[in-house]
Amino acid sequence: MTKETDGRRKPHTDGLPKTEPLSPSQLQQNVAAKRMLRRLVQGENPPTAPLSIVDRLAGSPYANPMIQVGGVDTSARKTIDFALHLAESMFRYGAGALEVETSIIAVTAALGLKNIEVDITNQSVAINYAPKDQTPISLLRVVRSWTNNYAGLAQVHQLVTDVVAGGVGRDEAVRRLDEIIHSSKPYPRWMVTVAFGVFSAVFVGILGGGVGASGIAFLSNLLISLLARQLSKRRVPDFFITASCAFVVTFIALLLDQFGVPIEPAIVVVGGILLLLPTGRLVSSVQDAINGFPVTAAGRFLSTVLTFGALVAGIAVALVVGTVTGMEEIEVTETFPPAYEWWALIILTAVAVLAIGITEQTAWKLLLPTAGVGVVGYLVLWGATAFGVGDRFSPAVAAVIIGLLGRVVALKMGAPQLVVAVPAALILLPGLTIFRSMYVLTLEESQILIGAGGMLNAGAIVLGVAAGIVLGDTLARPLTRNLASNERRRARRR
Fold first, then answer.
1. What is the mean pLDDT, run by run of 10 residues, along the chain of 494 residues?
2. How far apart are CA 244 and CA 230, in angstroms?
3. Which stretches within 325-392 are classed as H helix?
4. What pLDDT was estimated at residue 48?
5. Which of 10, 121, 257, 473 makes an SS bond possible with 265, Cβ 3.0 to 4.6 Å?
């Protein structure tokens, strides 16, 4: 081997280029890059970390409650009893599951209880209190009755606001809740009965009925109000009460039409059954389904379907009885032109919403704001129909506006959104479509599919109105954060 060959450098045999060792600064940069990549992939919190129950208050009027007690509450049982009593009252007055849940969480957090879990299932509310190294407490309350009392619901809402603001302790809260439950409703029975008839008469005028039709609707609704009261005293189930009322108002309209009384029987029936529709329950069921309470939503929706079934049964029986007794068939496909000028229709709409508020026992101070929201919703319905949005979609658009304004006005007046939105939205429901579909479905055997299609169309409109109210409430939440905080500040000053 030559010297030249011996002096050659041997080639690398590992197939990899030779690398220089990293400097300390490069190592530090590499570690920082790995840390940043890990944060991007994993996030700052563990992916399986449970959601804090207080986070459920985000978006509600009770966000960031003021804690009144320091340390562990030694009388947790009394606090839980109060929270359950509060929840039962809210359910009885018509509140939705989300509102009940947020109220329980806010009150228990403000009164110093941690480790709380709330479970709401249709008619029952359960609270589990399990502090570490202590004996857990589990209590359940079942709601067995309901009543129309939006004034009481608004007072309960204000009580929760005051507790969250830190201005009311538990003993004072218990006393105030007991006063709310045992206090009289704003309006006596006779006034509610008259308001029931006034709404029917006014709504008949909005639909195109004349003075005679409005008068018949007023009298027939007075009659079915008295009938419903007597049946309730005898513990008759609600299904048969609703069916009986629908039968009476339909048969009266058919009977008067056969005697030549100049009325529009279809409109009279619609005016009679509209307040029998379970509007508040339907809105609450849709709200519960959207907000993640499927069992509660299913229970309320089933109750709503049964009420609709009772209305259908009452109308159908009246139509069949009329046919059997030889009454002539009525024309249900005709359209009715407006019976009054546009400005008169606006006044009638405001009066109708006022009457609904009285039947729902809305507080005096909320009647005029609720009527204003109802008028705005009616104008939106009018405008959407004129722009060609369609008979199905126009009520949903109006319901979104009513839901949005309802939340703003209600929180401004110290009440939940449901108290304002439900009475204001009742005029959007398709009562005339329901009656026409029932008539065709019951008496026209050759047009059963048309009647069924009409009922599906009416159901779609009703669900659209309910969903629109919930959507409006959701859209208004960013606009009402300051309203909720201002309300709590006023409570603290008191």
1. 50 54 64 63 50 59 58 72 92 86 89 85 85 83 84 93 85 93 91 90 85 87 89 89 90 84 78 75 79 83 85 85 80 69 91 93 93 95 89 90 94 90 86 73 70 81 87 87 55 48
2. 12
3. 342-359, 364-386
4. 47
5. 257
C-beta separation of 238 from 307 below 8 A: yes
Predicted pLDDT at 366? 94
Q: Closest by alpha carbon to 410, among 480, 325, 482?
A: 480
Residue 124 is predicted with a pLDDT of: 86
Closest alpha carbon to 411 in 422, 419, 400? 419
Report yes or no: 63 and 57 within 8 Å, Cβ to Cβ. yes
Contact (CB, 8 A) for 357 and 423: yes
Alpha-carbon distance of 447 to 450, in angstroms, equals: 5
Residue whose token pair is 């039968």: 247
User: Is residue 380 a contact partner of residue 398, using CB atoms and an 8 Å limit?
Assistant: yes
Distance of CA 81 to the CA centre of its chain: 26
Tokens coding 270: 């619609």
* 3-state SS, residue 278: coil
What pLDDT sits at residue 354? 95
Phi/psi of residue 126, each to 5°? -120, 140
**DSSP H helix total and E strand total for the chain:** 19, 3
> What pLDDT, on a 0 to 100 scale, did the predictor assign at position 484?
55
State both tokens at 271.
């005016």
Structure tokens at 39: 């944060």
Q: What is the pLDDT of residue 355?
A: 93
pLDDT given at position 285: 81
- Per-residue DSSP letter, 474: H
Left if phi > 0, otherwise alpha if psi is -120 to 50, otherwise beta: which for 331? beta
Q: What is the structure's pLDDT at 491?
A: 46
Give the Cβ contact number of residue 459 at 10 Å. 16
Q: Crossing angle of helices 393-412/364-386, nearest 10°?
A: 150
> Do 299 and 123 form a contact (C-beta atoms < 8 A)?
yes
d(CA 147, CA 181): 11
Q: Which residues contact 54 (CB under 8 A, 6 or more apart)?
A: 65, 105, 109
> Which is nearest to 79 in space by CA: 50, 42, 106?
106
- CB of 308 closer than 8 Å to CB of 243: no
Gyration radius of the chain over CA positions = 31
Pull the structure tokens for residue 198.
């006034």
The strand pairing partners of 491, in sequence order, are none
pLDDT value at residue 70: 47
Collapse the DSSP code of 28 into the 3-class scheme (helix H, G, I; strand E, B; otherwise coil) and give the result.
helix
Q: How far is CA 25 from CA 28, 103, 124, 153, in A?
A: 5, 56, 64, 66
Between CA 419 and CA 431, with CA 425 as vertex, the angle to 5 degrees is 130
